[in-house]
Design brief:
This protein has 370 residues and is mainly alpha-helical. Helix 2 crosses helix 8 and helix 2 packs across helix 10. Helices cover 84% and strands 0% of the residues. The protein has a domain at 291-356.
């Protein structure tokens, strides 16, 4: 009994120590993890250059990373230019939203009998200042999210080195484990980790494109300004699961409120984005990314919260890939399989097949007895 308590205490201490180290080394670990995950995304391009075009490994990796960085740079240039155009019109937006919100407050006073002081408090609050404050908060969030790649200037370098020394790193992991059977098991884990991350990233890119197009079409039908900017900005914020869609719908809703005569256009924007989010979560993403490793919603939300507390916005982006990788590792370690089961989705096909096999075995036992 005492040995079991000591073992549990050591496990808890180890987890606390790992979390503490992860927090203290967040500026080092986050670009390394980003580089590791992104390397799996561009590895097929590197492999194609090496095997089909017979490029030198260094040249193949360099060209692949340049292509990747050029695409990312073009995306943020587009976002920056469009956002500057929006900010040029911000004064007009402020005045229009201020006027409409003031009218709404006066209408509320007439219909409910409540006075402005009862609604907003005794302190006089300028509606224009409220709008400016909220807009500045949204702007700061977007700029902080957009500066993630700028902060991770070492990420392309890490990607280059990971891809360059991939054979060496793989050999190192084999040397860590002793024995032929352990080597085979480690090879299986590494292959599954690669395919999980690669499928996740490729699926995420495809989902972003589809969601961006659907968002843009919805905004075009409503006649909202800058439809493709807002549509694909919201799709880009899918990097932050569950929360990104909420942030992405606020700006076009404010523009709709400022530029349209009816409040229902703003409601329509939120409604369309919410409906597309429903399609993305229940139809688009499951069909595209598949069920290679599925995490249940409770684990997904908790992991996002915990990693955001640990690493901020980068942690929110990395939460699901890291948790999915941990599930792969747990599923291959006998002592940790229960945790892997806990992380998995209740409708996972793997566990469904296991249940069916148990049912067949139970029926066979019953038939033998009868």
């Amino acid at each position: 009994m005492n040995e079991n308590k000591a073992h549990i205490a050591l496990d808890i201490l180890a987890v606390v120590l790992i979390v503490f180290i992860a927090y203290m080394l967040r500026s080092v670990l986050t670009p390394l993890i980003f580089a590791t995950i992104l390397s799996t995304l561009i590895y097929p391009i590197v492999h194609y250059f090496e095997t089909h075009l017979y490029f030198n490994r260094v040249i193949a990796i360099t060209i692949s990373i340049l292509i990747f960085c050029s695409i990312i740079f073009a995306i943020f240039v587009f976002i920056g230019t469009q956002f500057n155009d929006i900010m040029d019109k911000s004064s007009g937006y402020y005045e229009s939203i201020t006027k409409k919100l003031t009218q709404l407050i006066h209408h509320t006073e007439k219909t409910t009998g409540l006075k402005q002081n009862d609604i907003l408090g005794t302190k006089q609050i300028e509606v224009k200042e409220i709008v400016k404050k909220n807009s500045n908060t949204i702007f700061e969030f977007i700029t902080s999210s957009g500066s993630i790649i700028g902060d991770f200037v070492l990420t392309p370098l890490y990607m280059f080195l990971f891809l360059l020394y991939r054979d060496f790193l793989r050999s190192f992991t084999y040397r860590v484990v002793a024995g032929y059977s352990n080597k085979i098991k480690m090879k299986s884990i590494l292959n599954e980790l690669y395919y999980v991350q690669h499928n996740y990233l490729v699926g995420l890119v495809i989902v972003m494109i589809i969601v961006g197009l659907l968002n843009s079409i919805g905004l075009l039908l409503l006649g909202i300004e800058f439809p493709f900017f807002f549509g694909f900005l919201c799709a880009l914020l899918l990097l932050i699961p569950y929360i990104g869609i909420i942030i992405g719908s606020i700006l076009p809703a404010l523009v709709a409120l400022a530029t349209k005569d009816s409040y229902w256009y703003a409601v329509g924007v939120i409604g369309i984005f919410g409906f597309i989010q429903f399609l993305e979560g229940n139809i688009i993403t499951p069909k595209i990314t598949g069920t290679k490793v599925s995490l249940n919603e409770l684990v997904s939300i908790i992991s996002i919260i915990l990693f955001s507390m640990l690493w901020g916005i980068p942690g929110m982006i990395l939460a699901l890939p890291i948790t999915a990788s941990l599930k792969v590792i747990f599923d291959h370690i006998e002592q940790l399989k229960p945790i892997g089961f806990l992380l998995g989705s209740a409708d996972d096909k793997y566990y469904e097949s296991k249940a069916k096999n148990r049912l067949k075995t139970w029926r066979k036992i019953r038939s033998d007895k009868t």
